[in-house]
Specification:
heterodimer; A: about 300 residues; mainly alpha; MetI-like fold; two-stranded antiparallel sheet; 14 helices; about 75% helix; flat; B: about 450 residues; alpha/beta; D-Maltodextrin-Binding Protein, domain 2; 20 helices
Amino acid sequence: MRHETIRHLKDRTTTALFVLPALIIFLFYFVYPIPTAAFYSFFKWDGLGDRVFIGFRNWGELFQDGFFWGAFLNNIKLLVLAVIIQLSIAMLLALFITGGTGRVRGIMRSFFIIPLMLSSVAVGLLWSHIYEFDYGILNTLLRTIGLEGLRRDWLGDPNLAIYSGIVATAWRHLPFFMILFQAAIVGIPVPLYESADVEGASAFQKFRYVTFPLIMPTLVNALILITIGSLKYFDIIFALTQGGPYNSSNLMAIYLYKKAFGQFRMGYGSAIATALFLIVFIVVVTIVRSLRRLQRRVAFE
Amino acid sequence: MNMKRTILAIVVFVLVLGYAFAGGKPEGEEVKTKEEVITLEMWGIATSGKPTASRFEKAIELWEAENPNIQINMVNTTDAAYKTKLKTAMGAGQLPDIIFSWIGTASHKPLVDAGLVIDMRPYMEQGGWLEEYSPASIASVTYDGGIYATMTMAGARTVANFYRSDIFKQVGLGEPDPLKPPAWDKYKSILQKLMGSGVTPYAFGNREKWPGSFWFMFFLDRIGGADAYPNAADADGTGSFTDSPFIEAGRRIQELVKMGAFGEGFNGRSHEDGSPMALLYRGDAAMMLQGDWIYGNFKKQDPETAAVTKTFPFPVVPGGVGNPLNTIGAPGGQALSVSKSSDHIEEAVEFLRFISTDDRIQEMIVKSGVLTYWKGFSGMIEDPVVAKLVEMDSQSPTKQLWIQEDLPAEVSEVYLNEVQAIFGGQDPAAAMQRLEDAHARHWAWAAK
């Protein structure tokens, strides 16, 4: 063989060897569990004893399971509200902390990031105390400023519980998108803004015609991340309500946890897990496809 | 360069060695050939911090002082982890010499049914061991005439109305009889008097759902009698959860909710993080329907409240067939059984006899303020509140065991959810129908 080919092969091999450990871990911990879960979903299994093959019985039960579809609806609520609340506030904050120097803005940024530094359980505890009915911060505040009638059982009212959880979740996660957007905005060349100024553009117009289109790829990524995150979300809602009261704030992942580890129905839990994966997969693919079409249109402008 | 590398290699080697030797097994079974020391392995849930932990320690100390050739190795796990541990061990058929289980059909009975533990009746009928216990407590671990566990170290559990006598005095209420269940109308007038003076009758947190279950169990027992639950819950039972006592119990709960007996926000209020206790300590609420252990909490957290705390039993419900003296709770004691496959059955039984009957140990347990099922100890109880609770409990013909512990996990969750839903205002008939459906589904499922 010629020298170049040998070296080419050597490079390839070296690359492969370096990638191999990570690839193995990835395949074993991330890829393998998915078909395995699908496999387990056809069995009745309590996690300890024998596995009994039962075909599609778990799946039949799942399709008719009101709690599961209720949880699915909650995930959708979480998704829609997360997109609206988190992305818009994150965008506003990102615009605020970019541009202009000023130590104040730097301090503001460090301040806004704090929620991101807390663990989910800590956030759950924190917001439990805010939402607590008798002496919690929110109700006490309402009472002090004379709005006693607005006091609610934020975590105990089945109509409110999921929304209380969504707010706490938004609080925790939006700094992440703020950083993401800020990084994207900073990448926009300043001359573009200068030429906009020359044409007498208002702040809003500058946003709409310069900033927004140029950070579109980042927005798309944010949308995908928030979609996947919302559909498989577990942490803070579980810490706050454990899915209650009576399953009103259930999420698919919480329901999965309760079935598999609380009631020792591993087969059914696996069915939920597989369904969850399929749902996320379908939703993400749909979003990416439609956004790609949108992106092409915007790029032409 | 070489020097650096060598040092690095040595450091890594030492670290790896350290890893290899870390986490070694503590104790374990050592049979010293010199004196033939036997070690009995015992499993429990007396993790450090629980009152039972120090009791077991003391008891084992006393035993080993008198029996140096029989050592006891007790391995404790947290409650939730223990359930899994027990299940796994049962599946593998590998039990320790002495094993703990929760009294009742969910935990202890499966051990008996699987033939894994010995019948201790022949041993207990000798030497006055059996006579130490009250009949009701022995009945709870007897199956087909065989006694499959001893009970010790922890008290019985009972539930009563704990109230602040100072608040009662303030609003002009007399003190209810601690042993006689009040009539329903008298009970409601107590609630109304409290509410009229701006006090929430009950400090109630039902986030975790089991506090609400106490109300349901009591109403069910008062209305339907002691057979109501077993009839519905047994797989081949004749009853159903949709029978009228269950629905009636739900309606009574809603009657109290509508009256305002529990205040507001109770379904979201967490009992386990102490919120209702705070209401009670501040005097915003006057009563709590809780287990006997709550008194210990009061003493630790707010001695002023504990000093004025008194108890009275759950009221009588008009039209109910249940004996008004019935209680709910647990028969008490850690159920300790001896494994059939143990190599040292005689020694294990002797140890259990010791910790169940030795005077010093019994005195230690009774003095620590638990409800006891041993006869003849009520004189020894110093605290008058506990003494009254013990008296109330000992006059009870039957005790309804915790329903949420007795039902299989999946059905138990539905039960708790539905009771909470009833507190939240949902139709009791529909709620009980859902419970019955889940129950039926579980047994159809388990049968396959």
